[in-house]
Write a structure and sequence with these properties.
By secondary structure, the chain is of the alpha/beta class. The chain has nine helices and eight strands. The chain has helices at residues 18-28, 40-52, 72-82, 104-121, 133-142, 157-165, 182-190, 220-231, 235-249; strands spanning 2-4, 30-36, 56-60, 89-96, 125-130, 148-151, 168-172, 196-198. The protein is globular, with a radius of gyration of 17 Å.
Length: 256
């Protein structure tokens, strides 16, 4: 019924109860989870997890916050693992202009090369765009992608419309459950439903009711219920639309 388009189920936070978390998500109606790697070291853990839980699909990439320790040969490793044909996307990749200190030129170099790799393998991209939306859009215009998701979108309506024009869906999750998140709630309520996908980013970005505790993919239906209320539609209608949207972007492999 629901697709969680961004969940780090391989994270250490789930080490003690990963099987229970996965089972609870399925019991809640989450039928597909996309698990993005963040660096070369996580490629193997994401692969093993997705083979152990067939309703999970892997994405592989080097996250901008892991670029400082990344090496050029990590990009060769990315190509090698994409050759296996298991990936549904290249990600999580992008730019981060929030965390300091940072090497913006190095971030951009790895981002650009991974965009080229995504084109080479004809895969969509899962983008990290924190405080860097215009810079990311600039690179997408230079290196157009066939499709992708702007994860945890938190930009303006104009920026949202530009992502949509470039063939992207926008990811919304726990942040929209906070009444004070007025801009995100307005966007989630008014953007074309064809442009929206759901995500948890678990174990991060917990929704309001978790009070800062560890997030998990089983929260997705309740997040969806909040969005459905904002849009004035049924949860079932929202589930159908967002699942179809996710399948449209991440179509190379379906969950087993």
């Amino acid at each position: 019924m629901f697709t969680d388009t961004h969940c780090h189920l391989d994270a250490a936070e789930f080490a003690i109860d990963r099987a229970k978390v996965a089972a609870a998500a399925q019991a809640a109606g989450v039928t597909r989870i996309i698990v993005p790697a963040v660096d070369r070291a996580s490629f193997s853990s994401v692969t093993h997890l997705c083979r152990a839980y067939p309703f999970c699909n892997p994405a592989y990439g080097i996250h901008p916050l892991f670029v400082p320790t990344a090496q050029p040969e990590d990009l060769a490793a990315l190509r090698e693992i994409l050759d296996s044909g298991e990936a549904v996307a290249v990600g999580e990749i992008g730019l981060d202009r929030f965390v300091t200190p940072r090497d913006e030129l190095r971030q951009e170099a790895f981002f650009i090369e991974q965009l080229r790799i995504a084109r080479e393998f004809d895969l969509p991209v899962i983008l990290h765009v924190r405080r860097a939306i215009d810079a990311v859009l600039k690179q997408l215009r230079c290196i157009p992608q066939r499709a992708g998701i702007a994860h945890a979108f938190n930009g303006s309506r104009q920026q949202a419309d530009e992502f949509i024009r470039l063939g992207f869906k926008l990811g919304f999750g726990g942040t929209l459950t906070f009444p004070r998140a007025t801009r995100i709630r307005e966007l989630a309520a008014t953007l074309p439903i064809e442009s929206i996908v759901l995500e948890t980013d678990a174990p991060d970005i917990p929704p309001l009711w978790l009070d800062g505790a560890r997030n998990s993919p089983q929260e997705l239906p309740r997040i969806a219920a909040t969005l459905a209320e904002l849009r004035g539609i049924s949860v079932e209608e929202l589930a159908r639309a967002t699942t179809a949207n996710a399948s449209q972007v991440l179509s190379h492999q379906q969950a087993g």
